[in-house]
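user: can you give me the structure for this one chain? tokens are fine.
assistant: on it. calling the predictor now.
[tool input]
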Amino acid sequence: MGKGFASAAQQTASAAMRQPINATREALRPLFFQRCFYLFVTLLALIALAPFIEPERGGILVRNVINTFIILSAVAAVGRSLLSFLIVLLLAAPALALRWLWLESGSGELFGMALWFDAAVYATTIALLIRYVFDREVLTSDRLWGAAATYLMLGVLWSFVYAILDRAGTASFSIRGTPASMDLTDLLYFSFSTLTTTGFGDIVPLTRIARSAAIVESIIGQLFLAILIARLVGVYPRPEPVTIQAAGKAM
């Protein structure tokens, strides 16, 4: 009887210990099933806050913090397999390190390397997200957020491409008719106006490479939306045609 009492006590204690663990897992479950939503929110925060970020140390610090959250969200969003997780993580680690080292040293070389690694992280994340979004499995809300995040990442990726071209030495862009270097706000503004084919005309690419990059971005932006709409239409089955005989039987 004593052994039975001790066993029951152990089971009760074990159940009491598992209860907070299960509660914690249930609380954290949305973080893993809505990964793409958090990636979308962090990208949207970068775009919305970009005009208010000054090109000084404090503004650069805020930009690095937001970029850190974006990269971490990207790792969480695409890390659904060990291989994809490792690939993005191996690119994200030096990207984050170079960003923070540049903040401390102010070295232009570190900033240039950080831009290349940032572009690599975004390009890899976009490829993995597209594979996830357009998979033949059931279309969930997380996949829809993944499609929205992919569209925003395309715009931010091309802002890195334009920043790399802008640092190439020659004047690659003109702002209101004057060749000039672009800051974060100008880069995002020109990238998304090109992605959405808005084209206000106040920022114009000057070099052949910059023009080609703008053309490729506008084509990819339109193709992505067209293919996404086709994917959404294909989710819903076509209604079966009702024949006259079937209608007569129903009556």
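assistant: here you go. The longest strand covers residues 173-175. The beta strands are 173-175, 178-179, 203-205.
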